[in-house]
Design brief:
By secondary structure, this protein is α/β, with parallel strands linked by helices. The radius of gyration is 20 Å and the shape is globular. The protein has a single domain, classed as Alpha-Beta Barrel (TIM Barrel), CATH 3.20.20.140. About 40% of the residues lie in helices and about 15% in strands. The structure holds 2,4-dioxo-1,2,3,4-tetrahydropyrimidine-5-carboxylic acid. 2,4-dioxo-1,2,3,4-tetrahydropyrimidine-5-carboxylic acid binds next to loops.
Length: about 375
């Protein structure tokens, strides 16, 4: 049995230096009341100067940037292979003129980190999405030739206008042509106002548990509505956190589309692919949902051959300082065990075989 973690992040040292050099979100810094602990501030709204500095962002240490720590974590949790990706907010915040070089350097660095542990590490590359579209397409083409790259990670903002922006078509076309998977991951959540005036009392729960999945669901629904998968019928997208709420809401989304008079009048209902068809042919889902119920919805929506194990390391570490194993990871393992029961084949597929086949981790495909 092989165990593959396809949702596991890294901030390579070069990116950490960039974050340390900044004073606006995203950034890393120490605060006067806790000078020994660096904090990583990345999410919109977690930089509120009226809250104690120690409640801003999250403590950050070598597990975020040291590849040896990643491999130690893999060993502790019996993970054979990891497909690492730059964590949010990727390069979304960089000025256009800096993004192309930054993406090249980060992708080269990450490929180099993978080379240090042959057979154990692969990666999703990073795109310079604030740069002109030609620069982005060039980086897609360059990634195809890199030994350890197996697709790309991106957020929901695309070139700044979301993933239903037709200006993304050349990028989708290049990814489809080269069979490169998009790992779609949230970052921006929902507008802070929806969390209410007491939001700062509740830590990160509302943005992470609800903002992230709803952001993802909205982004994918906009892709569906704009016909991305009608134009790019082979484009494959791996959606973080078991698709946000997509498996649960797919029926409602499909019904709302079918009953929309405006879409009908515009002729947009003819020839469109149903949501369920896209889910079964173009969507992979990670298994980072921490419950049997969520996993079963994901399997019903896309199939057990499209579900892939992940951990979200280095996020969600144990809060108990002495813990070696991570409760977040073990919860996911237990949920997979419960969801598949005696169906060992499907369980092994989800834990690793699907990733090996889909991402060509055994090099069988040229
Ligand atoms: O804890 C968090 O903020 C996060 C994050 O930002 N990104 C992620 O992938 N997981 C958790």
């Amino acid at each position: 049995m092989v165990i593959v973690d396809i949702h596991t992040h890294i901030y390579p040292p070069i990116f950490v230096s960039l974050l340390r050099s900044r004073t606006t979100v995203p950034y890393i810094r120490t605060f006067p009341d806790a000078p020994d602990s660096s904090r990583l501030i990345i999410l919109p709204g977690e930089d509120d100067p009226t809250t104690p500095s120690t409640s801003r962002g999250r403590p950050v240490g070598p597990q975020y940037w040291d590849i040896a720590e990643k491999v130690a974590f893999m060993d502790t949790h019996k993970i054979d292979i990891s497909v690492i990706s730059l964590a949010n907010p990727w390069l979304d915040f960089l000025p256009a003129e800096e993004a192309g070089d930054a993406a090249r350097q980060i992708n080269d660095d990450v490929d180099g980190l993978c080379a240090k542990y042959p057979g154990r590490l692969y990666a999703f590359g990073t795109l310079p999405l604030s740069a002109p579209v030609e620069t982005v397409v060039k980086e897609v083409e360059r990634l195809v030739g890199m030994k350890h790259m197996r697709g790309i990670i991106m957020g929901t903002s695309g070139l700044g206008k979301g993933l239903d922006d037709p200006a993304l078509d050349p990028i989708y076309a290049a990814l489809e042509k080269h069979g490169q998977v998009i790992f779609l991951h949230p970052h921006y959540g929902l507008p802070g106002s929806v969390y209410g005036p007491r939001a700062s009392e509740y830590g990160h729960v509302l943005p992470l548990a609800l903002g992230f999945p709803l952001e993802t669901t909205i982004a994918v629904t906009r892709m569906l509505l704009s016909g991305v998968w009608d134009r790019f019928q082979k484009l494959q997208v791996l959606i973080a956190h078991s698709g946000g709420t997509l498996p649960f809401l797919a029926g409602r989304i499909e019904s709302c589309i079918k009953h929309d008079g405006h879409l009908k009048k515009e002729g947009k209902l003819k020839g469109r692919r149903p949501v369920w068809d896209v889910l079964k042919k173009n969507i992979y889902l990670d298994a980072v949902i921490y419950s049997e119920v969520g996993l079963k919805a994901a399997v019903d929506a896309s199939g057990s051959d499209r579900l892939l194990f992940g951990t979200d390391h280095p996020f969600f570490p144990p809060l108990e300082e002495q813990a070696t194993e991570w409760a977040s990871v073990n919860t996911n393992y237990q949920a997979i065990g419960a969801a598949f029961g005696d169906d060992e084949k499907s369980m092994h597929d989800v834990l690793g075989n699907n990733a090996v086949t889909i991402l060509n981790l055994d090099g069988r495909r040229s």
